[in-house]
Structure formats: structure tokens, C-alpha cells
Design goal:
alpha/beta, 8-stranded mixed beta sheet, homodimer
Chain lengths: 440, 440
């Protein structure tokens, strides 16, 4: 038997789990400060809830669940296995959230602000940094089209990364600007080709983009008009002026410009960079588009935007929403590489009482109970193993203090505390143990 | 399209999610005080890791994942769908944990103390309180056969339920006592039938148990010998004496008695009740067996025991472990019914700034930032909606304070705070807002 997890999935050992929890707990604490509430949806959705929502490629990557019992027997006989599938594993948190909002619309209070931290599954070809099971950490507001929500989400992004110690840049775009550009160059029907090409500017450069546009049937005139967009540089103000000069005459383009200007005016963030090549699943976003990057890391670690009709697919039109998704795995990698996880995450235990025998350990159990009552984590080593072995355990568990209560100490009502950081030790009266740790 | 979650699965709305998180967070904090470390395993396991571990009935209830791509096409053509399945959803946390321990044995430090809080899936017929997706919350020590671990787990059980405000009774048994009974009545080969019948004493009474034993082929002599076991009553000491008089002559029975006596001697718990009818998946436990009950609730809310050969199925023999599993759903139901969740869980927001317009809300955004910096959760209502609507939102969100900053207040550099508990309001200088909440 292969002793391993399925392809593309992982176990998390204590150190990794603690670090991941640190990222999630930090994010959650911030979300709560802004009034966001937790929700959860099941791992499985009815298959029809998911199919057709992620494009053809997405549909293929959805994990489906094998029918059971008679249903399976019939399906095999009639060779319609795929049609008999009832459940599938969720592919992202967004579509299940849309289903959730529509299903529970009468139980929710709008604007509804929620966060959701759960795993999702994609039958993608696994590669470095890409897994078949990974966590998404989403925060969304639905039922309000105020741009204050966008401003708030930018604040949240900055608070989370500041707390984590990760320096970030927030790229900002607006779908309406992309529409304005398409309209300006007379390629209204080719907006997807246009933005897919623009989105690659970082990777394939100006020449590459122009080549791709030509291949997609853009004529020379359009491409000439596009030139200033591709040659885009300067600070935000200069960029806004330049965009205005190109697309300001289109109603939709001007709307996009206004929205960006409002967000910049309200936000206290200094790290917003306008990037009109930013698209991120354009079909979905209708207004602001965000993407968060950190230097020295190629892919984005957080992203999102405004969507005006997400719940429409489930029969509830005209509910506007905006949200961002934090990429836990990538944030983990960035923090790991920069070595900025707090050291305390490694220190899983404050005090280990060594085990010198029945009588001694009975006393240690009592002392351990008292320590826990003041919030100090501690263990009594369960076996009367060799002291060397017990000390090795203390080392591997990165214990802060080792407490020794042998026959002599028991007789003298004392206890020896060994500081595992500097190796020093001191003997104190047993009654001073709690005061000693209370002072720390 | 059916707007619902798959059969037997549930969404958790904010209030439910907050209450569930409260249970998990409480348990986690206690686990950490005892030096337990978090781990996670994937939702899916390789199907051969799970199959054959839960009996025939269990195997049938495992959710399998449909093969994809060419594998599916071939499987359909050759009608060997089930054999082509590669992944399945985990059925419990125990078997994946055993796989984890064996796979990572060289990365772990023994005794290894871990907790794990994750969902599991069973294609059971859904009914009240039984779901197809539910969370397990497990805490185990592997690699130590010291009874101090059992004592520690009892302490943990008591600490968790005390913190949650749930009064519990801990039933304690030992597989060796059950073996001793089987040996005494000469039914060594029928230990499973015997314990399955005894396990039902609560439900079907003495007559029922005797009837079932007869049906299973126990002769009158055996049943007569069993009588004192069935008529079992008294306090722990009396029970131990009685058991000793019946099975004390068997080596295995005496060993079980010794173990129970040691646990009782070391434990400070006053709520342990010996119950020799307790079996709980006997095939699996080899020593202590625990089950936690609360009055007025029929099913157990926590249970576990000692298993001496769990990792043996994955090729690592002689690793003893002991652990308990907290039943989150049932604990939730008990707490909900007793109405003992803290009120503060409902209060998701401290301060709501009403939105009176562009200028005012810009100021509110700044005040909100300052409040969050001192840990006060707050929101600026995103839209300039009617005040009545904004106040209704404050009500539904159970906001503690509503802050009003209109044109007049803005001119006077003041802000009005409305106490939503008693309806009183006060106007304070804007500069006093932070000191006001700092004092709270």
C-alpha cells in the first residue's frame, strides 16, 4: 500500500499547521474588527450548482463524487455515470457563497459582510505551489454598491499584511476602463481577447502583446490607438490623466475613472498602483479589480473585485458585491522565504515536568494543573524514561522550562527549574512555582 | 435548479458558525495548555487507505471520488468503475491519523500529542442529529503506554466541558475487563456478541440483553454466571470489588482492574463512573474505554479509548495510542438546548457609524480606523441610506453602540453615541471617542 496522500494534496505537520493557523487567525481577527461575520458551506455542492460556472476548463477540473448503491448499479448498466453524479467538491468559495446568499436571502441582513476560510478542490495538474486541495480565505460584502466597500477592503488588505509583516503593493484597475479602451479602439466585441493580451504585458512585453493582438485580428489602426495604453507609466495621477485623454470621451470609461478617483480619494493607503492591464477573470468582475503583490514573488498573493451579478445565476438579480480572496498557500511561502513567522509559533510548550517515578509524577500532575489554571501550557512526561530521552523530547518540542522534581526535591518541598534557552537552573520552593510563572 | 446543499449537509450561518467556532476555540485552547499540537490531513485519502478499515457497513458509507478523463472513459468501457476509483473522502480522523503517523514517523517526536479538528464524510441515511458531513475534534497521544495519558485525557475532557459550562459524567471501562468476563463465562470466542449485547443494557434492559445472548447461542450456565455483571450497581469501589470477585482470577481481567484502579488513583476527577457495559467499537480499543454523557441528552458527546495497534494496519506495529473525540454537533445541540452559549457571541460589532453623506463618512472612516487600532470592532455604514434602515441594520447586527456624526456634529467637532442596550445617547467631543472606548 502506498503510504501517501492523494496526488496534489498534503498533510500539515504541527509546525506547518501552527504557521497556517497564524495566517488564518491574523486575517480573522482583522475581518472581525471590520464587522465581517464567519460562514461555512459544505465541501460538497449539488453538481448542478457548480457545473457551467467556471468555463469548460473549470468544469473539467471539478472533482465529482461517485454515485452509490442502486444508483451506481443502474448508471453502470446504462453507461450514464457522469449524468448520475449528484455531488461535487467545491471549486472555489464564490459560487457556493452566491448559492448561499440566494438560498438564505431572508435570513441574512444586507449589506451582508462575511468571511469564509475553507478548502477547495481542483483536479489540476499539481506543480510547485499548485495543489489539488488548498484553502481559500475570502472576505466579501454583498448588497451594497457603495465604493466605501472597496475602500474598506483595501484597508483590510493593508491591515492583514501589515500584521503579518509582509510589504505589499495593491494593483487597482476597473473593468469599466477596460470597456472604455475596447470601445475607443472599436473592439467592443473583442474585450476578452484584448484584456487577455494586456494581462500578459508583464510576462511577454510590449512586442508580445502586439503580436498576440494581431493574431487575434486587431487591425493596425486599433493597435496604434492602443499604443499609449501599452506604454503606460508614471504615478497614479499621471496615469489617470493619460487614461482620461484616451478613453474619457466614452461614458463607461469615464465612469471607471471616476470610481478609481473616488477610491483613491477616500483611501488612506499609500501603496495603491493603477494598473490597467490587470484583468483577473474579467467575465466576472464589473467594477474595481484588485491584485496584491509583494516584491520578489512572481504571483499575486491576494486579489478580487466588484461583481454586479453573481447571484443572478441563481435567480436573484441586481445584488452587487465586492470581495477579495487571500491566497493562504502563497502567503505562507512568502513568509517562510522571508523568515518572518514569529518565533513563538515554534514554542509549543512552556513547561515540561520530567518523570522520576510514580510518587514524583503524582505531585507534578498537581503542579501542572495549577500552572494551566494561570494559562501556562505544560506537560508531565508520561513515562519514567531515561532522563536523557526526556530531555531530548523537551528539546524537540522547544520547551521553554524543564521542571525537575526528584526524590530530594520532593522531600525538601522544592522544584528545580531549568531554563532551556540559557541552560541555567534554579531551585525554588514548590510554593513559589505559581508566583514564579505569574511574574513572567 | 434546486437551491440547496446536498442531502445530509449544511450551511452554517454567522450565528451558528460563531457558536461552533466557540466550541472549537475553547477545546483548542485547552488542548494547547496540555501540550497538544495541531495537524491536518487532506479531505481525500487514497481509497485503499480507507477501505477495509471500518467493516463492511463502513466501507459502503465511504464517499468515493469519480475518476476523471481517460481513466473514466476506460472504466466506463470496461465496466470497472469502482476499481478505477483512486480517492475517497475521509470517514473519520483516526485512520488518516494512523496513516499520517506511519508516513511521517521520522519527522515526529514521540510521545506525539496531536489535536485535529476537521470534517469527515459518511453516506449515511441523514436523520435528526446525523449528517453526511460533520466535524470531528480528536485529541490523541501515540507512542506511550503510560496510564498518565488516560488521566490527562480525563482532565482535558473535564476542562473543556467545564469551560463550556456543560456538566458531564465520564463513563470508564476497559477492554481487558470485557475479555475477563468473556473468559470467565467460557465465551472467549464470542466477546463481540457479548459486548454488543451488554452495550444495549441501557436501551433494552436486563431482559432484552438476556434474550439477545440466548439468540446468539450463549447457554444458560454462561448467562447465570453473567447475572452479577448485568445487575451491576453501587459506587466505583463497590463495583470494582464485585468485578474482582467475578473475573479477578483471570490474568487479563485483573490487568483491566489494575488499570482502572490506577486511573482512579491518579485522577482528580470526581465524575468518573465505571460502566462495564461500555464497548464503543470494541475491535479497536485494547485498554481504557471512555464515554462522556450529560444528563437529559441520550447520546454520548465525547468518547474514546486506548488502542494498541492502530498503526499496525499501515505496517508500524507496537505503537500504543490513546485518544478521545469530541462530538461537536452534539455538544452544540446540548449547549443550544440549555441556552448556555455566551451572549457576547451574538454581538458581532461594537460600533456602527451611521452614514450621513460624503463629508461625514470620510470623517467616520478615520475615526473607525482609530477605534480598530485599540481593538474595537466597527463599521461605517457604506450607503447614505435612510437612517431608519441604517438603525435597523444596527439592530439586526446587535451592535452595541451607534455613532452619529451629522453636519452639526461635524461643525462642532463632536459625535453622538447611542447606547443600543438602553437607548440613551450622549454627545462627546470627537477627541474623546478613543478615551471613551479605551475606558470600557
Amino acid at each position: 500500500m502506498k503510504l501517501q496522500t492523494p496526488k496534489g494534496t498534503r498533510d500539515f505537520l504541527p509546525e506547518q499547521a501552527a504557521k497556517r493557523n497564524y495566517i488564518f487567525d491574523t486575517a480573522k481577527a482583522i475581518f472581525r474588527l471590520y464587522g465581517y461575520l464567519p460562514i461555512e458551506t459544505p465541501a460538497m455542492e449539488n453538481v448542478e450548482t457548480l457545473m457551467g460556472k467556471y468555463g469548460e476548463e473549470g468544469d473539467r477540473l471539478i472533482f465529482k463524487v461517485l454515485p452509490r448503491g442502486e444508483k451506481l448499479t443502474n448508471a453502470i448498466q446504462n453507461q450514464h455515470i457522469e449524468k448520475s453524479v449528484e455531488e461535487a467538491l467545491k471549486y472555489d468559495l464564490t459560487v457556493p457563497f452566491a448559492r448561499f446568499v440566494v438560498q438564505h436571502q431572508n435570513e441574512l441582513h444586507f449589506p451582508f459582510k462575511r468571511y469564509q476560510i475553507q478548502p477547495v478542490w481542483r483536479a489540476d495538474r499539481p506543480q510547485k505551489g499548485r495543489y489539488r486541495e488548498f484553502y481559500q480565505c475570502d472576505v466579501d460584502v454583498v448588497g451594497s454598491d457603495s465604493l466605501l466597500n472597496e475602500v474598506e477592503l483595501i484597508d483590510i488588505i493593508n491591515d492583514v499584511f501589515q500584521k503579518l509583516g509582509v510589504e505589499v503593493l495593491i494593483k487597482l484597475n476597473n473593468r469599466k476602463i477596460l470597456s472604455g479602451i475596447a470601445e475607443t479602439i472599436g473592439a467592443h466585441d473583442k474585450i476578452i481577447d484584448l484584456t487577455v493580451a494586456l494581462d500578459k504585458l508583464d510576462k511577454i512585453g510590449k512586442e508580445g502583446v502586439i503580436k498576440e493582438l494581431k493574431e487575434k485580428g486587431f487591425d493596425d489602426e486599433s493597435i496604434t490607438k492602443l499604443q499609449p495604453v501599452i506604454d503606460f507609466s508614471g504615478n497614479n495621477e499621471q496615469k489617470l490623466e493619460k487614461i482620461a485623454s484616451i478613453i474619457g470621451h466614452t461614458a463607461i470609461g469615464q465612469k471607471g475613472l471616476d470610481e478609481i478617483q473616488t477610491i483613491l480619494a477616500y483611501s488612506k493607503a499609500k501603496n495603491i498602483v493603477i494598473d490597467i492591464t490587470l484583468a483577473r477573470g474579467l467575465n466576472y468582475y464589473t467594477g474595481a479589480i484588485f491584485e496584491v503583490q509583494t516584491k520578489d514573488f512572481p504571483s499575486s498573493i491576494c486579489g478580487g473585485g466588484r461583481y454586479d451579478d453573481l447571484t443572478g445565476i441563481f435567480g436573484l438579480p441586481n445584488v452587487s458585491g465586492v470581495g477579495v480572496s487571500f491566497g493562504a498557500d502563497r502567503i505562507y511561502d512568502v513568509m517562510q522565504e522571508a523568515n518572518i513567522f514569529p518565533d513563538t509559533l515554534n514554542q509549543s510548550l512552556e513547561v515540561l515536568f520530567l518523570n522520576f517515578g510514580e510518587n514524583e509524577s503524582k505531585n507534578c500532575l498537581e503542579l501542572a494543573t495549577s500552572l494551566r489554571q494561570i494559562g501556562i501550557s505544560c506537560e508531565v512526561y508520561p513515562d519514567t524514561a531515561k532522563i536523557k530521552k526526556q530531555l531530548k523530547y523537551a528539546d524537540t518540542k522547544k520547551v521553554r522550562w524543564v521542571a525537575l522534581l526528584g526524590e530530594t526535591e520532593l522531600a525538601n518541598h522544592t522544584i528545580v527549574l531549568k531554563n532551556m534557552l540559557d541552560g541555567t537552573q534554579q531551585e525554588i520552593p514548590m510554593t513559589q512555582l505559581i508566583p514564579f510563572f505569574n511574574k513572567k
